[in-house]
Every structure is written in C-alpha cells, then in structure tokens.
Amino acid sequence: MTTTNLKEGALVAVHGPVGQFNCIDHPADKVLFLSGGVGITPVMSMARWLFNINSEVDMVFAHSAQTPSDIIYRAELDYMSTRIENFKLHLISERSETGQIWGGYRGFLTREMLQLMAPDFMEREVFCCGPAPYMNAVRQILTSAGFDFAHYHEESFGATPTADIATAEDHAAQALEREEESVTGEGHWVTFLDSGRSVQVMEGTTLHEAAASTDLNIAKACGMGICGTCRVRVLSGEVDMQHNGGISEEEIEEGYVLSCCTTVVGDVQIEY
Predict the structure, then answer these.
(1) 93-142 per-position pLDDT tens digit
(2) For the chain, what is the mean pLDDT?
(3) Can you list the positions of beta strands (E) in the chain?
(4) pLDDT grade, residue 186 (50/70/90)?
C-alpha cells in the first residue's frame, strides 16, 4: 500500500522492533550509552526500559548536542538521574547561545571526557548511536584505548531483513483472518468486573490489549512478563500466560496473571 492509496479506516500491517541494537541480546552488569543528536532515541529507549523495570544495571549515559536547548529528553533524563543511583548522566554541549547558562561539558566528546564520565568504560558494554561523524569519532576513541569491540554496538540503518518482512506479512495475514472472524461474531468475552466493562475479542488477544480496547489502562513497564507491573487477578475463565519470571508461583496459585503476556483462550472475568 502506498501513501497515495492510504485512507481513513485502512488497515496497515506493522511489525515490532527488530535488529541487534538492544540491551536484551547483550546483557551486562555495566553499560555505557553514547549518543549524539537525534541518535539519543534508541539508547534512551534502552535506558528507559532498564529504569522502568528497576534494573540494577550500572548505567552511564553520555549525550552530545549542539546547544543546551537541543538536548532531547532533557527533563526525563534529569528525572531519571535523580531517582536512582545506578544512572549517571553526562551532557555535552558543542556550544552555548548568548544568554544560555551551561555548567556541563563543552565541545566534542574526547577520550579525556570519557575517562572522567566513566573511568571503567573499558569494562562496559557500549551502545552508540548518532550521526556518522559522531560514531566514527567514538570508534576512534575506543580504538586508541584498546577497547574490545566485541562489547561495542551501534545503530546501523539499512534495508529490512527478508526474514522480518516475511514475519510482518505473516502477522498481516493473521490480523486479516482475525478481522474476518470478528465480523462473524466469533470470539471470547473479557469482563472487567470492578470497572463494569466487557469486550469481545479474538482468541490470542492479550488481557492488556482487551483492557485498552475498553479504554482501561492497566499499568505496565516491560511488556515482556519480567517486571510484574501489569498483574491482575483472573476470577474465572481460560487464559494462557507465557511470562518471563515476573510473577511467583504463589501468585499464580491465587489466580494472578501478567496481563501483558496472558492471552485469552475462552470467556474470562478479571478483577480490575
């Protein structure tokens, strides 16, 4: 579908995040996030996720911008740095405009700056994203220090992998099939008793998705069944939970599930 054919009400197939630039595939006790300009987006996503799940990972976050007013996520970064001890924030401004007050680093990232920000940077897993000249400079700094590049990761834009295209097409076909099934009236009822809301969804829909379709917001953080934030209690009905350790056996025995990774198998009633 091209943008010239896209109209209100059209269905668009999308797939989730792909690629190797993530902190899940490269777990480490200590990480160094390096970003320049808009390259802050993917590293901020990783840092925010670690922050939201109360991870004990030791994070150093160093971001470079042209001026103080160009620092993206400034307020959120300041908030994160004041809330937990394992998030160290360092900001670098190439220059400051007339009248701007700036007490951070000035100029461009150097090895000396990096040594001050993260004296143990040689021991950290490094995630870097930014303009090509910025990433080239970072690689030169790390090379001169003798850094092991097996622990270096950078964002690299390119064509979507063939396997991911196939996955997206498969998901689109499944979505179309579910849409056609919903037209026939088939599906399962999910009832949120405390809120007095009900919705009919297709099998395989998560409880979190079902709640969202009724404008109910079940708090969540990781979305992967790790943090336990989205816990709700199933009072009756059939569900299938595929969690990643975010819930105890005792809680499961009491009927609790994690809504982000629990799918509907039959009619179900939720205490929410």
Answers:
(1) 998 877 778 888 999 999 999 999 999 999 999 999 999 999 999 999 99
(2) 87
(3) 30-36, 58-65, 87-93, 105-106, 125-129, 152-154, 188-192, 197-201, 231-241, 256-258, 262-271
(4) low
Distance CA 53, CA 48 (A): 9
Q: Residue 239: CA atoms inside 13 Å, Cβ hemisphere, count?
A: 31
Q: Are 83 and 55 in contact (CB under 8 A)?
A: no
Phi first, then psi, for residue 236 (nearest 5°) are -165, 155
What's phi and psi for 62, nearest 5 deg?
A: -120, 120
Pull the structure tokens for residue 192: 């949120």
Cα dihedral sign, 260-266-271-272: positive
The 10s digit of each residue's pLDDT in 12-32 is 766 666 677 889 889 999 999
Rounded Cα–Cα distance for residues 130 and 118 (Å):
19
Distance separating alpha carbons of residues 111 and 211, to the nearest angstrom: 49
**Neighbour tally for 155: CB within 10 Å:** 17
pLDDT over 70, % of the chain: 86
Q: Which of 97, 147, 139, 101 is nearest to 122 (CA)?
A: 147
Residue that is written with structure tokens 């390096």 in the block:
34
